[in-house]
């Protein structure tokens, strides 16, 4: 079974934008056993509203008899800094005031989040990571981390994500934050501030996570007599309600801003120059119907990261295809590993 842990960092933590946190904690999950060579580590980075429990939201990828079998691998995932599943975030108590941070929690970038992850990695004594894998926001963080620590990560599996968040993606995120701002409760310092706005934000987000075909197949009305209370309408309400029961508007705001900040070219001479320095053997995976992170972004990564591999997932689920089409993703990763093995064998044969 997977195990839940908490990492406590008790020193001042400086953020990219200049603010500081007086320490923090990260909730993290481990699954499997570290081998004697410490060479079987897989590190997972979760998406925006995900948690460290990857066996929950990527359950078909991890488990006995699956691609990442805990009898063979040691798998780690940390809830992002700023999150609401056990890591320090806006609902945490600020030790300076003995009150929750709420709106005073400082803005984070993906670089801050990755820095926190790396402190946990060092605490665990993991000098090398066999595979770093992440999708969506988690893919952004994985790529940033691979650039920050090029000698740590041997392989990168980067799914439905990008090198720099697009104007399109930022516009979607700002529309969602506008919905939160319109909630009168957002101006209060309470745990439930912005909850109604969060529901609308999630409804907007669903339009970028899914695809026209998804709604046509699952939400289209049968027959021709319905003129109100449509399935698609109730589905949007349901999705908003569902998220509001497990998430908070502060963290949603904070992490959507972190997503917007993503740009591996910042202070590195531009995106292309930064990507040329990725040392990890990389697999970039796109979803053919992804509206939020269109496949052009993964093709771009493949074109600019040396010796990388690209795989296209075919799905009617849009961006969420990276979570739904796990069989295709599993096949892509297996082939990625197999190609590496065959290349090594060929090189060994040539040397002989």
Automatic annotation (TrEMBL):
GO CC, alphabetical: cytoplasm
Catalyzed reactions: L-homoserine + acetyl-CoA = O-acetyl-L-homoserine + CoA
EC number: 2.3.1.31
This protein's UniProt keywords: Acyltransferase, Amino-acid biosynthesis, Cytoplasm, Methionine biosynthesis, Transferase
Subcellular location: Cytoplasm
Active site: 136, 290, 319
HAMAP family: MetX_acyltransf
Name of the protein this chain belongs to: Homoserine O-acetyltransferase
Annotated source species: Pontibacter mangrovi
Lineage: Bacteria, Pseudomonadati, Bacteroidota, Cytophagia, Cytophagales
């Amino acid at each position: 079974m997977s195990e839940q842990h908490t990492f406590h960092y008790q020193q001042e933590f400086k953020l990219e934008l200049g603010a500081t946190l007086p320490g923090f904690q990260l909730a993290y999950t481990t699954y499997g056993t570290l081998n004697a060579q410490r060479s079987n580590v897989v590190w997972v980075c979760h998406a925006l509203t995900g948690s460290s429990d990857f066996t929950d939201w990527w359950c078909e990828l991890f488990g006995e008899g699956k691609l990442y079998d805990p009898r063979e691998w040691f798998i780690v995932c940390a809830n992002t800094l700023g999150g609401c599943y056990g890591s320090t975030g806006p609902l945490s108590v600020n030790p300076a005031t003995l009150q929750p941070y709420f709106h005073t929690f400082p803005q984070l970038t993906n670089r801050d989040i990755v820095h926190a992850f790396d402190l946990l990695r060092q605490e665990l004594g993991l000098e090398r990571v066999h595979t770093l894998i992440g999708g969506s926001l988690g893919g952004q963080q994985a790529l940033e981390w691979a650039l920050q620590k090029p000698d740590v990560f041997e392989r990168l599996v980067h799914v439905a994500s990008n090198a720099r968040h697009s104007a399109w993606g930022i516009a979607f995120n700002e529309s969602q934050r506008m919905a939160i701002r319109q909630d009168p409760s957002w101006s209060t310092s309470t745990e439930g501030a912005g909850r109604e706005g969060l529901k609308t934000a999630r409804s907007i987000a669903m339009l970028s996570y899914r695809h026209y075909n998804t709604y046509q197949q699952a939400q289209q009305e049968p027959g021709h007599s319905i003129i109100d209370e449509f399935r698609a309408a109730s589905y949007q309400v349901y999705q908003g309600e569902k998220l509001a029961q497990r998430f908070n508007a502060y963290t949603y705001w904070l992490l959507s801003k972190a997503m917007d900040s993503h740009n591996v070219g910042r202070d590195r001479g531009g995106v292309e120059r930064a990507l040329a320095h990725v040392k990890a053997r990389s697999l970039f995976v796109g979803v053919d119907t992804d509206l939020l992170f269109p496949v052009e972004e993964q093709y771009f990564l493949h074109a600019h990261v040396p010796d990388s591999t690209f795989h296209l997932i075919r799905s009617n689920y849009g961006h969420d295809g990276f979570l739904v089409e796990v069989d295709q993703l599993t096949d892509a990763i297996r082939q990625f590993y197999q190609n590496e093995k065959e290349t090594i064998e060929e090189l060994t044969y040539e040397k002989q």
